[in-house]
Amino acid sequence: MNQFNLQIGSNHTHALFAIPQSDQYQTISQIVINPKVKIIRDKIWDNTILLTNTKIGLTFHQQPKIIKQTINPTLTIQDYAPRLIKEHSYLLESNRFINGQDSRIKKIMDDLKIAPIKDTSLLMMIKSLYIYTLDNLIYGKPIDNLYSYDQALTEKITDCGGFSTLLLSLLQSVNIPARLVVGFLIKEENTFQKVFRTFNFALLTFNFLSMHVWVEVLLPDSTWFPLDPAVEWRRNRGLTKRQGGFGIIPADRLVVSHGQDFIIPHSNNIYKVDLLQNPLIV
């Protein structure tokens, strides 16, 4: 069990931060916001967002979960129910960061000979696009914001954001719904944390977190299948010992939001936000 104490905002400035929610990666409990602030919900991605114009403390408990999933090899693109696709149609819309309609993306799909044909295995399609991403990008130049698929395609050297937006664009091009998972890697324990572990909790702040994003695919049975190409790329080259990859996410993450390229209206203001990750001054 992790206990977080996150300090957000400052006096006389407006700050946004997505409040972590329970999902397949974690159970969140005992959320306390002090002092109380305005809470808004983005209607598309269903993120819960706090808006503050003063310094606040956000505390909560988190129980991370280990994810190990597989995809039924008999599933095909035709197994998506029209209702499911309609409910998640926003995942198939292009934006500044993801674009499955780009001619360069289409050419990649043609070269790979991947198309949403009736009997094509969904597992084969997703695996092929995942491997393409691993084979054609280089991890580097990490930033605090989100790299677009265009940056990844053009420069090849990119961070976890570029790995994810390129893979999302490839998936979108064949009408496979998928989304960006936004959060943090929890840094490896130091001696201080290990002492507190003996009492079954750890006090964690932003200093113990490292920004990270990955992908999850919506399967025809409405479950989410995770893909973490950036961590696998780095592990394959001996740059990290962290686990994570095709269907595997270890219990070392804090998830705070989903999606990208937000328009968040509040009172008389409209906030245009690339990513809900670190506290954002607006």
The share of residues in helices is: 10-25%
The assigned CATH architecture of the largest domain is Roll
Question: How many DSSP-defined strands?
Answer: 18
Q: Mean pLDDT, nearest integer?
A: 92
Strand order of the largest sheet: 3-6-1-11
CATH class of the largest domain: Alpha Beta
**Envelope shape:** globular
**How big is the Rg?**
19 Å
Q: Tell me about the largest β-sheet.
A: 4 strands, mixed
CATH fold descriptor of the largest domain: C8orf32 fold
Strand content: 25-35%
Which structural category fits the helices and strands? alpha+beta
Total of helices: 7
- Any low-confidence stretches, pLDDT <50, length ≥5? none
Domain Transglutaminase-like: 152-231
Pfam family, one: Transglut_core
Protein name: Transglutaminase-like domain-containing protein
InterPro entries: Papain-like_cys_pep_sf, Transglutaminase-like
Describe the structure.
- It contains seven helices and 18 strands.
- The radius of gyration is 19 Å and the shape is globular.
- Helix 4 links the parallel strand 8 and strand 9.
- It is of the alpha+beta class.
- It folds into two domains: 103 residues, no CATH class; 165 residues, C8orf32 fold (Roll), CATH 3.10.620.30.
- The chain has a four-stranded mixed beta sheet, with no helix packed on it.
